[in-house]
Fold each of these.
Amino acid sequence: MIIHRLCGGLGSGMLLGMFLGMPMAAGPVAALQTDKHSTDTITLKITSSNGLGLDSIAGLPDGQTCTFPATTGPTPTSCSVSVTAGTRITMTPGFNTNGTGLPGVLGQYFVTGGSGLCTNAVSGPFTITVDKPKTGDTADCTIDTGTYGLNGLWGYEGQADVLSAGPLFGLSTHVGAAISMDGAALTYLGGTDGRAVWYGITAQPLPDAPSGAPLFTGTASEFTGGGAVEGGPSQKAYRLKSVVADIRLAFDTPESGRLTWTPHSGGTTITKEIVLLQPVPMADSVTSATNGTTPGPFANGRYMSAIPDAYQQGVSYFASLIPFAHGTALASTFLNALSFDPDGAAIWHTGLLEAIWNNDAWQVGQGTLTRYKGGNAIDGTGKGTLKAVDTLDVTGALSDTTGTLTLARAGGGHVDTTLSPDTGWKHGTWLQVLNENTTLAHPNIAFFPAGGAMGSQVTYFKPGAGSGFEKKTVKGWTSIPLADIVDGSLFIRNDPGAGDTGINGTVYLSDDAMSFPGKAGPNPTDCNDPNFDIRWQPFEVGGDYDLTYINVYAIPVAMRYMGFYNQGTATQGQLKTLKSDLLAAASVTPATLPTCTKTNGDKVTIKPDMSTRILSPVYDDTIGYYPGFGDAVKNAPWSHIVIADQYNGVAAASIPANPPCADSAYQPLNYQTDSLAYTFQPPKTKTGHGKYTLTVKGHTWSPALADPDGPKKGGTPPNGAVSFTMTADTLSPDAFSKAIMESVVSYNVTSTVCQSGGGTVSDQNGSNDVFSAIARDLLAGFSSGFINSSAYVNGGAANQWSYQWWTTPVAFAGLGGYPVPAAGQANYNVWGNAVFKPFGFGVYGFQYGDRFKTASPLVPVSTGPVELILLEEGPTP
């Protein structure tokens, strides 16, 4: 282990970070010694205080076993064995598997302590003596467990002087329903500036990290305009200034890892080995508490100030406090205060404080927080010599649940601050819109909320008089010029405690102010729509964010999030080709050109190649310009198609009102078709038209009845599977083609899963039940090009089942092997193919673009800044 001694002006013996010893290998140990004069038999009750942690105890007398019952949460669970009084037992804990889903050390359970007979419990073998209790016949042993975190202060490996050289990285991991990491990079600007600056870190895990190491990916962001550390508010507006870099953090052990830092400015990517900084005892260390009680623990990690949300206000503290030895009453507190100067620039103060366990709390002795300049930047450049800029005197107390600090500036004045444990950058997301598009004269943004008003959940700052700022609340259905949004930064609050329900709907990016009469969205095929002559591009927000060109292509937009998602990025050359491909896709001239009559009587022909946007084939007025699927559905290899996969079900609250099918059709189910047929019944008279009918037969069943991974090629439905029949008897080739293009189809369903009596009901794919999933796979199979590709259904004997389609990295034209289509016909969605060429599955090009498993247009946004970039298009092709 490398011990980093910290100097550089703050004295020796500085403590940074938290030391976590690796758990010893657990294996059966049976080492028993019994008092031969004792004949009393007592019950040894062994309790796992966190039922998720321990699996078993080995080494118990007479071959007895102790296996803890499984629990669904961190509740105590126990087992009991019979022991002769006076017996010495060397027991070894066995741990449950990592419950976090991450490989490597993060989330592994280890022993944190114990009580009763097991006060000396450790992760490896430990010995207890089971004496007869003073009362009763049961002796208690409680073992406490926890999980490894990656909390603490980290620095570069091999730095001769960690403090003066910098930088430092304060990290906090949060393991719960979701795993996240946050913290701050504490560093200095390079060159002649040299001032201290901090960047907020938000990251999320990638489970498939190389070499089994926990890997986090995220961003480092600069904020500006927040409060001062001594409590006075800044005169500026707190906001996201910029996302400085994408970061990756890989950890081999709880004490070592690697940082990769990729600047957004286009600089060189930096990769550095990092280590958790370790404690060095102070010279005057004491070994007993002043009041005789056992020193309590301290959660090493970031603590926030009294301001309720650091993400909105920007004042926070990162504290590391570790006793020098188990049970000692003296510790060092390395405290970093993250705040802003009077001009709104991010700054940080740092200091070493002595802490003594007193009156059942860690009492922080008086010390000094100092702001320095002259340290090293992230890339290692800088003077490497610290110079004090200003200081604050500080005293306080810290514990696992709360903390208090008193800060005073030399010359008078002080402020008392109450701290509370940080649970992550929470309560919202920053959305920053960056305009690189020089063809947009007056870029605007408008929120179109789904299902109701927005309340006060989205805010921004508008330039005010002089150098001031005015805080504004975004109103739904109202355009805001980007010039009115300082730094393009909007804060989307998501605090259930404040009544927030989250933002769900569409964001419109446009080249001028839009209007929404009656709160209606824009209609690009209505020449009287007030937005008809405005370029606009939709962007969807909710639990997932996504870019979509399903309906129109007008303004190219890219999205970056968490250093991993980089959707829609393209060069000017690629965008020029995309525009040409979309225009070329509309290669058919319909027999009747759709027109729209303006209120002044002028007639406008509705065509895909409008001056403000290109329209896709999802509109009735434009579908006729694009090659259809009439021949593809008539000539499809229907007898070879098998639709088989898993339907995950929907929550009760998401079931539509008055659904066609019963709730049983919305439960998780496997589905598999037995046969598909598309048949034509000739007319019975010379003047008749005949009728096409689509018939789909198959089975559904509960995943509990069979392989939990779902249907497999060559498998048969299990006993208990329920049959179904789906029919659509008004689906002519043209109507079928339209259903594929617009992803809307109606059909009848006969199944006891839909109706308990097995009657026939009318359904459609918008119902989101299990039969909608079957219809979706069929429509998407045609649109993506699988069904008529020789690589898959049409001749690809090894890849005929639909669940295999969605694992391919290619689709549309890339599948190949299609029969030559007739004029005006296609084997795949030509619009979707044009969008797929530059963006892959990272952008919606057709309605079921999220069906693929190799990538997805859906970006799961929780915390961390989201960047929207209006891309430069260059000259019009």
Amino acid sequence: MVLDKRRTYVLTQLYQSDTPISTKWLQKKMGVSARTIYYDIQQINDWLEDQDLEGIQRERGKGFFLTAKTETQIPQKIKLSDRWDYRLSREERKVLLLLYLLTNTSVIRMKDLIDHTQMSRGSISKDLDQIKEYFSEHRLDLRYSKTKGYYLEGQELHKRQLLSHILVSVKTDEKWQGIRSEAYEILLSMSPDQTKLTPFLKKVLYETEKELGLVFTDEMITILSMQIIISLERLTHGQEIELDEDEREALAKTKAFSAAGRISEQLHAEGYAELSEDEIGFLSMNLLSSKVHQEPPSSPYEDPEAPGLKRVIRSMVDDFQVYSCVLFEHRDQLEANLLLHLKPVFYRLKYDVPSNNELSEHIQEHYQEIFKLTKRSIIHLERYMEKAIPDEEIAYIAMHFGGWLSKEDQTIEKKYKAIIVCENGIGTSNMLKAQLEAMMTGIDVVATLSFREYQDTTLRADVIFATNFLKEKETPVIHVPALLQDADKEYVLKQLNHRLQDAPGEMDQTDELMAVIKKHATVHDEHALKQQLLSYQAHQTFSIKEHYKPMLNELLTSDTIQFESSVSTWEEAITKASQPLLESGKIGQGYIDAMIDNVNELGPYIVIAPKIAIPHARPEAGVEQLGMSLLKVDEPVPFSDQEKHKANLIIVLAAIDNETHLTALSQLTTMLSEPENMEQLLNAQNTDDVLSLVNNYSHV
């Protein structure tokens, strides 16, 4: 008997957890019924029995767990990647066929494909029709002749780019876990000395990091090593890249080209063929496009594209602030952070280097407002590159903005220090940090590290959050996905309450409480009371902070909507529009002054579209409670001498932080984007005319 992927996954979750896992948690995590979970547990127990291991145990009211004896032997028993563990899906089969056709140097006939996949001629023919179309999308042509069999026509550059695309996808996307080992075997089987070459290349790439003044993600180091091995193998068969002369000259001006040249020299010193300038150019493309974990502020690497990208980022942040009605306090740090991420994005898009963002759909679904705001701001990068930016890259940039929004809202005193060990790059690390700090009081993430950085760090923490398996030593380790869903949050909280409830700081505080209680009451069971207080404090320290985000019609009401025929100045317009919020105590006079000062200092940035102005300032300027008010003025109010800066709708936003207002703001901007809605608002004579529209857009 063998385990399929789903049951192996269940067993892995039990193996990695230090506490029992409930049926409910597994249901949420996997999207299956309780009946399916119980059936899977039964099947896993049958498999464990075949392996002479103790079965999964269940503790009433808590969940399933493995015995210590079983836990120690599981790593030697599980074989996730065995081909015969499960039947290949059609998509998995197509990926392997793609690799087979891309890498095989001998004649390939239908019989070879049938033997390779163990599928029928009809199934293979259907697969080949789709594969031919896929090759065409990547500027390659799959052909057939009686003498050559199946073969590919096209530039070696495009073949190499497609190989890299498949490699990155198979390496990073969990849906290809079942064929990962076989895909690697096809990609690297022609390199007999890869066992020796891989550690050598990693050492060379670590030196390259120092030369470039940056740190690649650990995953990227592995991918770059494999890309170089694939390139070396193809060169032995005369499959050499030819670059456009202008492109090669542009690449030669980058620091990455010099670094790639030194990699070539070290390979040549080890007995491998010296790379041509075009091959060095291709390697520099991959270096430029690689995800980085961090780049020191003193980096000697000034990219030729950096000045242009800095201008793009300034415009993007300008727009994001306008669209989100947020003023970033540490804007210079945000822009530096975005530049670090945007450089590889730029080169990935320029050179068609793959980026598999398995988190893209999750970000678009669970962080809709931030994704939409980022997508509106990305137009400056699209103009700079003269091409559309795909959603998966926008999602990564949205992670940076989202992480920064949460970062600036952290004001709660922290009790415990945490370290995040994440292999997914700076954007994912920052987003995970923001999620953890936002959902829990008392946790201060002091560092986000790659696995290599963690091994060398001298930092100390009370808990470590790791996105990949990390062996626990002295400090508790909690394994988490890169983006947390509700079931993951419950699991993290449960682990924290279990692992940190006996922390020294909490013990001291509990002793103080015990002393106060004993002073005013008789304690019959001191030990039981102390344990209950510890449990209560742990629960209070680690509890999910769900911030309610109100709808638009909860902020714009009949009490906050006003009408005027005209006002004398734009200052008067802001003051008049703010009155409902001032009178209700939601803002102080200082907030009105700050909004006016911002326009004087920054210009009419609050006029976000013709006839619409949204004055706002930072929360600390005098916001007591989230609020929004609207003033409709018949005669346009000029915020500058230009016609485009005249507004009839003055909508004051008083935000308490960087995020709570985003749902209502998203609904407002959606409403204002429709021309017929604008016409109705400009012609409105009373609050009912406005509220009928507002209510139509106030829904999830």
